[in-house]
Amino acid sequence: MIRFSVLYPKTDGARFDHDYYRDQHVPLAVSTWGVERVEIDKGLDGPYEAAVHFFFPSTDAIAAAMGAEGTAAISADVANYTDIKAVLQTSEIVEG
Amino acid sequence: MIRFSVLYPKTDGARFDHDYYRDQHVPLAVSTWGVERVEIDKGLDGPYEAAVHFFFPSTDAIAAAMGAEGTAAISADVANYTDIKAVLQTSEIVEG
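YS: structure for the whole thing
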């Protein structure tokens, strides 16, 4: 299983609408990409304000998602909840 | 549910023994802290070489784990698999 994480660094003066993120943005990505499992984080302590973890069966499936027709609409929706520049991380889940 | 993540930034010239991490170090932490769920990541693309996500029922449970008698031994074991300085993140899982 592959974890595709989008991490939003805490940024002075930046905005992040956690409700919109959970209720609108991530569900749009999930439905567009057909993701079967997702976790959304609200940062309590540490460098990140928020994060999402999408679970994909393979890196090829991530590449297909990134190139999907609806992905431009997902990108365009980001401005509706934040002006933080996200950090992307792809990892193989080796346990758990 | 609270996610306690330990993230290891990719660092030029640093070492990270993924096998030792998965087979020795994380199991030591899991058994010491009585963690019921854990995920271990091996970085494929992005800023992190590796990560672990411990799932705790509360931030109080994390505080108790950090103060537990066996935690010093966990810290002392880090030198056996890496010389990377970890980044710690605590987050509330708001979905998933």
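YS: worth flagging: Residues 2 and 93 of chain B are 6 Å apart (CA to CA).
IM: good catch. Also Chain B has three helices and four strands.
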